[in-house]
From TrEMBL, chain A:
Residues annotated as transmembrane: none
Pfam family, one: CCG
Tree of life domain: Bacteria
Cellular component annotations (GO), alphabetically ordered: cytosol
InterPro entries in the cross-refs: Cys_rich_dom (IPR004017)
Native source species: Aromatoleum tolulyticum
Protein name from the UniProt record: L-lactate dehydrogenase complex protein LldE
GO molecular function (one): oxidoreductase activity
Residue ranges that the Swiss-Prot or TrEMBL entry lists as coiled coil: none
Residue ranges constituting the Cysteine-rich domain according to the UniProt record: 11-92, 140-224
From TrEMBL, chain B:
SUPFAM superfamilies: alpha-helical ferredoxin, NagB/RpiA/CoA transferase-like
A GO BP entry: lactate metabolic process
Protein name: L-lactate dehydrogenase complex protein LldF
Classification of source organism: Bacteria, Pseudomonadati, Pseudomonadota, Betaproteobacteria, Rhodocyclales
Keyword RNA-binding: no
All residue ranges annotated as the 4Fe-4S ferredoxin-type domain in the record: 301-331
GO molecular function, one term: metal ion binding
Length: 261, 468
């Protein structure tokens, strides 16, 4: 080894709101995966939300205020990486749109957009990482979160990594690409429609016989986990990163119902 | 048709609990989605065609005046008449005047969503005419006195049993229960109407500028009988449906059937040019085209221009999980699903359809199958933006957004509140989740709320790494 080994990229971890409050374990899993892949990870303290709730509610000014904060906080990193297709699609795709008429902020939004990555696609598409050291005992089914799937083209990456995990059997569900009914504030504004959608999703999950469901966005996962728990279905719910990092121990999100329930 | 889009929420809940509707929707969803996917997979250039169709439509819309004038000239040269209708009322008047002039008693209709949009049937019936829908689906809902619930499968919300009941009541029985028998019964009833019809009204899937032709596609051949057997044929169409050449029309035809019903092509593709000529064996004596604007030209120059690319295939609603859950009637006007959620507020007014742009998870599945690549989720978000700007959004939502913005732009305050929230939720949780949370009943009525661990990630991280 030389005196000063080539350092991996300096990554600013985007600690999504839901992860920060509801599932810190996903953050630690992300850090572990990034560091194992050779990155230097920092978690800037000045971060809050990406602004998507404002943007999708039509309050573009509020979204811009949040976007400026994210840009200022993260633009000096080599990459901004987050364990959410939804937040990262906002940074990647929506920031340049929000500032399309702003000659000062547009270049900065574009620059950040180009180095904004969802965790799993960053690990595979940029770093070429593998998951051959990981182990998970169980049959897992994967839910494609919409923003990651259609906004960022995340489909094969998590499946490839999950397929490399020792002991893990991947079993596809019907309609894995159909929305689970979360949709941000949609799920509380239109609870009955959301219920019908998550009911369909949960039926498809249960039909696989899998004991675990994983995905890349905590919004969807909280919706699915909450519904599984409500109907006493003993299926564990983890973020893909937790499984890959070997930190998927315990009962998972919402503390899955026990077999005997 | 009276707009009831502001009743979306109630109608949606009603629909979710309607067992027959759910049965019908479940059946349709699987068929449309699977067949379309198969067709798209079997045509290697399908994705290229979508891109080409988008570009061609954009070119047409950029030169719409030119192509419409060329189209009008070609129709006139072929012996037909073009009428321009600024809005629904003008369109109804034009068509009524034609019908009255020829003393029409019976009017047959092929499927036309524009005629629904302008409320044509009611107007004709009010003036004493017998109006007969000849598309099987349209015929079924006409018997049920209901509006269509889907733009290409208007009776998709009906089960076979319900159709049996309707036919028995209307035709006097004996009650048929098998699909072929039901179709035959409708065919026998309708056959007589075609011959009696004074005026036949159809839509126009495409209007061809170079030839002045209108093109319709059907699976039942009802459109052909409607437009060739009556003395007068009236085409109702939106101004955006013009295409430059027959060649261009074939591009869209290749996409339309595949996207709509998952067929390679519809059973009948019929091209009409002008009235009957001297050596024609059949055809109408008069041929009219009513070009309806009704809000379209206003969309042309603005941020909703992309919506005018729509070729009315219905793929967006077939793939929409919200439409799949509630069906078309919940949307409360003529056009349901994603395309309807964009069009309805634009045509009928933003405050007459508050929920439609909002009742969407922005999952993007609609845009991913749209044959002309309309960015439907972006347009829906844009409508939300307009609602926000015009203060149409609920007061509570505006207040919540203000508070959220205030807090989220102050990281220390935001983190402090997150920490309080995480501790509180963790403290009230049982077995890893919360079953009931009064201020969040929208969430907890439907599912448990997963409990936080107690401390936030940022807190834990600073504790861990801060000591290093």
């Amino acid at each position: 080894m030389t005196e000063s080994p080539t350092r991996g990229p300096r990554v600013g971890l985007f600690a999504t709101c839901l992860m920060n409050v509801f599932r810190p374990n996903v953050g630690f899993s992300a850090v572990k995966l990034l560091e194992d892949a050779g990155c230097t990870v920092e978690v800037p303290a000045n971060q809050t939300c990406c602004g998507q709730p404002g943007y999708n509610s039509g309050d573009y000014d509020a979204a811009r205020a949040l976007a400026r904060q994210v840009i200022e906080t993260f633009e000096h990193y080599d990459y901004i990486v987050g364990p959410s297709g939804s937040c990262m699609a906002t940074i990647r795709h929506d920031y340049p749109v929000l500032f399309q008429d702003d000659p000062v902020w547009l270049p900065r939004a574009q620059a950040l957009s180009e180095k904004a990555w969802e965790l799993l696609s960053f690990l595979t598409d940029v770093l070429g990482a593998t998951a051959s050291d990981s182990h998970y005992d169980g049959t897992v089914t994967y839910h494609d979160s919409c923003s990651g799937l259609r906004g960022l083209g995340i489909k094969g990456q998590p499946r490839t990594l999950l397929g490399e995990v020792d002991g893990l059997r991947l079993k596809e569900m019907e309609d894995s690409e159909v929305c689970c009914g979360f949709g941000g504030t949609f799920c509380v504004k239109y609870p009955e429609i959301s219920e019908k959608m998550v009911e369909d999703k949960v039926k498809n999950i249960l039909a696989t016989g899998a004991d675990t469901v994983v995905g890349g966005d905590l919004g969807c996962l909280m919706n699915i986990a909450g519904r599984l728990k409500r109907i006493n279905a003993p299926v564990k719910v983890f973020h893909t990163a937790e499984v890959l990092a070997g930190l998927a121990d315990g009962p998972g999100l919402a503390g899955a119902a026990k077999e005997s329930d | 048709m009276e707009i009831r889009s502001n009743e979306f929420k109630q109608r949606a809940v009603f629909a979710i609990h309607d067992a027959s509707l759910q049965q019908a929707l479940g059946k349709a969803r699987g068929g449309f989605v699977g067949k379309r996917a198969q067709q798209a997979a079997e045509l290697p250039e399908f994705e290229q065609l979508r891109e080409e169709a988008k570009n061609t439509k954009n070119h047409i819309l950029d030169n719409l005046d030119h192509y419409l004038e060329r189209y009008e000239a070609a129709v006139t040269a072929a012996g037909g008449h073009v009428h321009w209708a600024r809005d629904a009322e003008e369109a109804r008047k034009i068509i009524l005047d034609i019908c009255k002039r020829v003393d029409a008693k019976t009017v047959t209709k092929g499927k036309s969503m524009v005629s629904e949009e302008i409320g044509l049937n009611e107007a004709l019936i009010e003036h004493g005419m017998e109006v007969v829908e000849t598309d099987l689906g349209e015929y079924i809902i006409q018997l049920a006195h209901e509006p269509p619930s889907h733009i290409i499968a208007p009776a998709v919300h009906k089960t076979k049993d319900q159709v049996s009941d309707l036919f028995e009541a209307a035709h006097g029985g004996p009650r048929k229960t098998e699909v072929p028998d039901l179709v035959n019964e409708a065919r026998m009833v309708l056959r007589d109407k075609y011959f009696r019809a004074d005026v036949g009204i159809t839509g126009g899937n495409f209007l061809v500028a170079e030839t002045g032709s209108s093109i319709i596609v059907t699976n039942e051949g009802n459109g052909d009988l409607t437009q060739t057997l009556a003395k007068v044929h009236i085409v109702t169409s939106g101004i955006e449906r013009v295409v430059p050449t027959l060649d261009d029309a074939t591009l869209f035809l290749r996409l339309l059937a595949r996207s709509a019903t998952g067929q390679e092509t519809e059973t009948y593709t019929t091209i009409s040019t002008g009235p009957r000529r001297a050596d024609d064996l059949d055809g109408p004596e008069e041929y009219h085209v009513v070009l309806v604007d009704n809000g379209r030209s206003k969309m042309l120059g603005g941020r909703f221009k992309d919506m005018l690319r729509c070729i009315r295939c219905g793929a967006c609603m077939n793939h929409c999980p919200v439409y799949g859950a509630v069906g078309g009637h919940a949307y409360g006007w003529v056009y349901p699903g994603p395309m309807g959620s964009v069009l309805t507020p634009l045509i009928k007014g933003l405050d007459n359809a508050y929920d439609l742009p909002n009742a969407c998870t922005l999952n993007g599945r609609c845009a991913s199958v749209c044959p002309v690549k309309i960015p439907l989720p972006d347009l829906l978000r844009e409508l939300r933006h307009m609602q926000h700007q015009q203060d149409i959004t609920p007061v509570m939502q505006r207040r919540a957004l203000k508070v959220w913005r205030y807090v989220a732009t102050r990281p220390k305050l935001y983190h402090a509140l997150e920490q309080v929230g995480a501790r509180f939720l963790s403290a009230i949780a049982r077995n890893g989740s919360i079953r009931r949370l009064p201020l969040a009943s929208g969430w907890t009525d439907v599912r448990d709320l997963p409990a936080p661990a107690g401390r936030t990630f940022l807190e834990l991280w600073q504790g861990k790494r801060g000591q290093k």
